[in-house]
Amino acid sequence: SDVVRFKRLAAERAVDSIQPGMVVGLGSGSTSALVVRRLAALRGEGRLTDVVGVPTSVETEQLARSLGVPLSTLEEHPVLDLTLDGADEVDPELRLIKGGGGALMREKIVAQASRRVLIVVDAGKLSPRLGTKWPVPVEVLPFGWRSQALFLEQLGARITRREGRDGAPFRTDQGNFILDCAFGPIDRPEALASRLEARAGIVAHGLFIGLTSELVVAGPGGVEHRRP
Ligand code: DER
Predict the structure, then answer these.
(1) Assembly ipTM
(2) Whose CA is closest to atom 2 on ligand 1?
(3) pLDDT single digits (tens) 46-98
(4) Which residues sit with their C-beta closer than 6 Å to ligand 1?
(5) Exposed (0-12), middle (13-18) or buried (19+): which is 16, by Cβ within 10 Å?
(6) Which phi and psi angles does 23 have, rounded to 5°?
(7) 158-216 pLDDT per residue, tens
(8) What is the rounded distance in angstroms from the CA atom of residue 188 to the CA atom of residue 186?
């Protein structure tokens, strides 16, 4: 499909930013999977063979391992040179909604540990205002999750507890639940993020604000790498 082609074009352009010897955060989701595949392909050509990846999910870890991409951890490398990751929605100020793949907690930890974060998207992710296209994923401890749902409804969201396979609740890599919160267009994402962070039991949310300054976006008009 066109979207997959755009994702692949964006992933390939983004991988051009990886320099030899880097320790790179590897995002989660289908676009990040294409980043990992591109990195593996370049390694197969004898390039970037000294690059090490730090995965943001078990899923990305398994894919990278299956392709022979060397992996490490934040314990070994508390500061990463670069993180490449996808997003579900991007606004004009490069504020993001992430978490469609359920990896938002490790994605945010890895992004905050990185000197540079490059977000890789197809043009369909661009949005005039966060919340227009996508609910905000909120990761909550199973303990007391219903009181979190009530808290989030009182903030104006319509809540869906994300389901995994066979109708059981989806579990993150940390074993937590995800409440997808449809707020609609969000006026002040920073204020909402602060309210979510103040609530005990909410362990992560999908509003990524001020975490990136670079975007690679591919669409009908071609591929663009937007830098500050
Ligand atoms: O969970 C995330 O934030 C991922 O980056 C993901 O949702 C991005 O989506 P993609 O599968 O379209 O790349």
Answers:
(1) 0.97
(2) 99
(3) 999 999 999 999 999 999 999 999 999 999 999 999 999 999 999 999 999 99
(4) 27-32, 85-88, 98-101, 103, 107
(5) exposed
(6) -105, 120
(7) 999 999 988 999 999 999 999 999 999 999 999 999 999 999 999 999 999 999 989 99
(8) 6
Give the pTM.
Answer: 0.97
Distances (CA, A) of 179 to 56, 140, 151, 213: 20, 7, 11, 28
Give the position of tokens 């590897």.
26
For 162, half-sphere exposure in the C-beta direction (CA atoms, 13 angstrom radius) is: 23
Determine the distance separating the centroid of ligand 1 and the alpha carbon of 33, expressed in angstroms: 10
H, E, C per residue of the chain: CHHHHHHHHHHHHHHCCCCCCCEEEECCCHHHHHHHHHHHHHHHCCCCCCCEEEECCHHHHHHHHHCCCCECCCCCCCCECEEEECCCEECCCCCEECCCCCCHHHHHHHHHCECCEEEEEEHHHECCCCCCCCCEEEEECCCCHHHHHHHHHHCCCEEEECECHHHCECCCCCCCEEEEEECCCCCCHHHHHHHHHCCCCEEEECEECCCCCEEEEEECCEEEEECC
